Amino acid sequence: MSAVNPVNWFEIPTSDLARAKSFYESILGLELTDSEMGPNKMAWFPMEQGVAGSAGTLIQGDAYTPSHDGTLVYLHVDSIEATLEKITAASGKTLMPRTDIGQHGFIAHFEDTEGNRVALHEYPVPA
Fold first, then answer.
1. Could you tell me if residue 30 is inside a domain?
2. Owning domain of residue 59
3. Does the pLDDT at position 1 exceed 60?
4. Phi and psi dihedrals of 16, rounded to 5?
């Protein structure tokens, strides 16, 4: 295996792409880019080549069903508490509040407007 992190792309299923795009843009303070690939409608998260982390998209298509089951995607945020407040204001739900995971920081789980279980990760502030 090459010297890169093994995960390089994720897809979060949507039933209503416009609603999901508005939700994620409001909670993360990002602008997602609309795209289409074949019959699938997508909204891509911002990405930059050659930096740490994975790129991904919201996706709406026949083969994509929002769910609490399956793979769990963790999104990096500076403040879980502030992001959970935005999630609630944007019609999402907190499933697991901010939880200490020791030296690795904090995590939380939420349900988005589409019914997906997604997670947040807040890195510890260096001393």
1. yes
2. 9-47+54-122
3. no
4. -135, 95
Nearest to 25 by CA among 87, 88, 108, 94: 87
Q: Is residue 26 part of a domain?
A: yes
Side-chain-side CA neighbours of 10 within 13 Å: the count stands at 17
Q: Which residues contact 38 (CB under 8 A, 6 or more apart)?
A: 61
Cα 31–Cα 85–Cα 57 angle in degrees, nearest 5 = 30
pLDDT at 53: 84
**What are the tens digits of pLDDT across the range 9-63?**
999 999 999 999 999 999 999 999 999 999 999 999 999 988 888 999 999 999 9
Contact predicate 15/116, CB 8 Å: no
Q: Tell me whether residue 109 is in a domain.
A: yes
Please give the average per-residue pLDDT across 94-109, as a whole number.
Answer: 96
Compute the distance between CA of residue 36 and CA of residue 39 in angstroms, rounded to an integer. Answer: 7
Answer whether 0.85 is exceeded by the pTM. yes
Q: Rounded distance, CA 84 to CA 73, Å?
A: 16
